[in-house]
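Action item from last week, closing it out:
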Amino acid sequence: MIRSRRSTAEAGPRQQPHVAIVVENLPAYEDTRLRKQLRDLLAYGYRVTVISQAGEVNQPYRDDPGLTLLEYPPPVEPGGPVGHVREYLTSFLWTALVMARLRRRGPIDVLQVCQPPDVYFPLSKVARWLGARVLVDQRDLMPELFAARFPNAPRGVTPVLHWLERRTQRSADHSIGVNDYLRDRMIVAGGRPDRVSIVRNGPVLARVDRAHPDSSWRRHSHLAVWIGKMGRQDRVDLVVRMIERVVRDLGRDDIGFVLLGDGECLEPMRDLVRDRDLEPWVSLPGWLSEAEVFGCLGAADLGIDTSLQNEVSPVKAMEYMAFGLPVLAFDLLETRRTVGPAGTYVSPGDVAAFGDQLVKLIDDPETLHRLGLAGRQRVENELAWERQTEVYLDVLERLTAGRRRS
């Protein structure tokens, strides 16, 4: 059954442009980028509808008088490539049904599709035919994401994913991506250079600055953190292997590690930590509120990222930097572009070197301070959401030009 929460404003005369947003891979409130976008859209007077998987975490949106939330039953968690196809097909059919219902209530001025997956271009074409403008919000690239998750999948899948990518870009009036790599790729796929923009997924500094460090996380002399959604492609297993080296090979029992987040790999990682007898040094609390996450970051000494995806901008690194934490990561294209002078880099996949460098940084407070200061300045000057939202709202303003009423 589709669950709907209508705002009181929706029932009145059509005053402001209506933005409908589709997000597929998780409940709307778990999408941190979407939360930032919604806050600004509502603040600037847009009427907003979100189409999303149902989940109790969505409760704040159900009670928000400023937007409409249309939820559909979450598909079965995929266990492999076939499971992902089934998930995408189920979500597509539910979204088509919900959009048809929404369109009967009134016009949609902008349809924003949060991607991946690149499967919604048929609905985008229908929306354009009915008078909407289409904005593609590209967060990841399906071919690279699929390869990272399923390295032994049949080769024939990749050309299909590139074909879907091209269809998506050619159905859009404008596209936004999180980094230069994605921008270049969207242009190659058919997006016009003047209609492709970069809107990075930086933290909201105003919220960071209101956070209070929570010293209860510091159960050892030093604290290193990892935050994020625990998917296969995030390689949280490398974090555990690195911790084992620090504790067993380097003999450091004075460093605690907190791995914050949930996802398909949370329970396997808990099992791995238990099997390696690392529980005295490692905490995996699962999903936490923003206040709890920020409290942990405020108490930490160092942020770590073990992703091996060259094309991904590490959102976790930008959050570390906002809290003045140095970043230790593998040396990847977009990681280095994002983190810059706030990071220390290790050859991709070299877990032993990663552990060695972590200990070296922990034992060098002067370098920790210098890197942390550089990161905070970079966030303030370039990466913070307060800087990025200017581009995002400008794109929306152009797409709705002439449709806003006083």
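Closing note: The first strand starts at residue 3 and ends at 5.
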